[in-house]
Amino acid sequence: MAWFILVVSGVLEAVWATALSASKNFKRPVPTIIFGVALAASMTGLAFAMKSLPTGTAYAVWVGIGAVLTAVWAMATGQERATTARVLLLLGLVGCVVGLKAVS
């Protein structure tokens, strides 16, 4: 259960990071609200997962999921260029996250 909550929290990290950018310095209300709700839920889930998972592993997996999904979303929406190097590096990050899960 802790791993599932950690994954959902990582997804929510990508949501709040994307909403933070879309909020334009907290000047747009809807993205600002989404940012606040997703941030609180993401941190709460991370805290819950860290009760039963090692702190370093839980944090690395949470950050990895959030970073990869945020970058993939930016590439999918055209905000960032999708290059071979970026895709390969993101795949490497996914491999590291899966590896951490495998050894925990």
UniProtKB/TrEMBL annotation:
<keyword id="KW-1133">Transmembrane helix</keyword>
<dbReference type="GO" id="GO:0022857">
    <property type="term" value="F:transmembrane transporter activity"/>
</dbReference>
<keyword id="KW-0472">Membrane</keyword>
<dbReference type="InterPro" id="IPR045324">
    <property type="entry name" value="Small_multidrug_res"/>
</dbReference>
<feature type="transmembrane region" description="Helical">
    <location>
        <begin position="33"/>
        <end position="50"/>
    </location>
</feature>
<protein>
    <submittedName>
        <fullName>Ligand-binding protein SH3</fullName>
    </submittedName>
</protein>
<feature type="transmembrane region" description="Helical">
    <location>
        <begin position="82"/>
        <end position="103"/>
    </location>
</feature>
<keyword id="KW-0813">Transport</keyword>
<dbReference type="InterPro" id="IPR000390">
    <property type="entry name" value="Small_drug/metabolite_transptr"/>
</dbReference>
<dbReference type="InterPro" id="IPR037185">
    <property type="entry name" value="EmrE-like"/>
</dbReference>
<feature type="transmembrane region" description="Helical">
    <location>
        <begin position="57"/>
        <end position="76"/>
    </location>
</feature>
<dbReference type="GO" id="GO:0005886">
    <property type="term" value="C:plasma membrane"/>
</dbReference>
<keyword id="KW-1003">Cell membrane</keyword>
<dbReference type="Pfam" id="PF00893">
    <property type="entry name" value="Multi_Drug_Res"/>
</dbReference>
<comment type="similarity">
    <text>Belongs to the drug/metabolite transporter (DMT) superfamily. Small multidrug resistance (SMR) (TC 2.A.7.1) family.</text>
</comment>
<keyword id="KW-0812">Transmembrane</keyword>
